[in-house]
Write a structure and sequence with these properties.
Largest sheet: 5 strands, antiparallel
CATH class of the largest domain: Mainly Beta
Oligomer: single chain
CATH topology of the largest domain: SH3 type barrels
Strand order of the largest sheet: 6-5-4-3-7
Pfam families: HTH_11, WYL
Structural class: alpha+beta
Number of strands: 11
Organism: Paenibacillus planticolens
Protein name: WYL domain-containing protein
Number of domains: 4
Strand content: 15-25%
Shape: elongated
Length: about 325
């Protein structure tokens, strides 16, 4: 066991006994009694109110109604928690207030030297992500609680920007943060199947008196990914896409989260992908437009024609706007 684990074990043993001696602690943890004394001193220095009673029935005990364990983390663990909280808060983590409280508590229970190091590491890392607004954060909290309590939700959901809202009942199985957007995945009573819904498109929501059983081993993360990544079980539906261009542009293209899963072969100035035809129609040409003249499509002809059509439509749109 590491030092931190042993100190935490000592704390829990003291907490679970009315009184316990150093020898009893040493015997239970199979460490030297002098080590017990050092760890007790360290726990006291971190703010734990441990009382040592002398005499025949003496031993260590906790003062009063102390129930909160100190955060017995080493500096690297503290740094990791501070950095992880920065990512979570920027991603719109729904319980940000509690997370800030936890970080503040971590700083309280550390020593001065570690606290100075924590501040240095905290100042050295920043995260910039689009944050959820207050209304969405409130919805996320309600959804997360409903997931944990397995409570059916009633919501009014807007599928598109101009679509009318639809009333639905949803058994929420899990929350997923994907590309800076939050999704709730669950069983839709209206469609009678598992669906995903963007939380920022929920216009109204309330809990019901109904409960549900979550499918065993269901993963909301895997459900989202299965709907995004190409289906490797259907190779007959795949279309060959070959792209040439500058090496750095191809590096960036091949590193894209979706394109990396479709890459077949790569040379210095050419990349060969296999994608489903629906992906070529849906989003690939719009993504490739951002590369401008740094890449060139060799095949398929369908993709070339789609790019030409999109750019022509853009040209016509802005040309007519300029005339008006």
């Amino acid at each position: 066991m590491s030092k931190a684990d042993q100190m935490l074990a000592i704390l829990w043993l003291i907490k679970s006994h009315k009184r316990i001696t150093a020898k009893q602690l040493a015997d239970k943890l199979e460490i030297h009694i002098r080590t017990i004394y050092r760890y007790i001193d360290a726990l006291c220095a971190s703010g734990v109110p441990i009382i040592a009673d002398s005499g025949h029935h003496g031993g260590y005990r906790l003062l009063g109604q102390f129930h909160e364990a100190p955060l017995v983390f080493d500096l690297d663990e503290q740094k990791a928690l501070i950095h992880a909280s920065a990512f979570a808060l920027e991603a719109g983590y729904p319980f940000g207030d509690k997370l800030n409280q936890a970080v503040a508590k971590l700083k309280i229970y550390t020593n001065q030297e570690q606290l100075e190091q924590i501040h240095l590491h905290e100042q050295g890392l920043d995260v910039i992500l689009p944050q959820a607004d207050a209304a969405e954060a409130s919805l996320l909290q309600e959804v997360e609680v409903a997931v944990a309590q397995r409570t059916t939700l009633h919501m009014h959901y807007q599928k598109g920007y101009y679509a009318a809202t639809e009333a639905r009942h949803l058994d929420p199985y899990g929350l997923v943060c994907w590309k800076n957007k939050w999704y709730v995945v669950g069983h839709c009573h209206l469609r009678q199947e598992i669906r995903s819904f963007r939380v920022d498109r929920i216009r109204e929501m309330s809990k019901t008196d109904m409960t549900f059983e979550r499918p065993i081993d269901f993963s909301a993360r895997q459900f989202i990914l299965a709907g995004l990544l190409p289906d490797s079980d259907k190779p007959e539906d795949l279309v060959s896409v070959k792209i040439t261009g500058r090496e750095q542009a191809l590096d960036d293209l091949c590193g894209h989260w979706y394109m990396a899963h479709t890459l077949v072969e790569r040379t210095r100035h050419e990349a060969h992908f296999q994608l489903q035809e629906k992906a070529i129609h849906a989003h690939l040409p719009y993504y490739l437009l951002s590369y401008g003249g740094t890449i060139q499509i060799k095949e398929p002809q369908l993709l070339i024609e789609l790019l030409m059509e999109i750019t022509q439509n853009l040209h016509d749109h802005y040309a007519s706007a300029r005339i008006d």
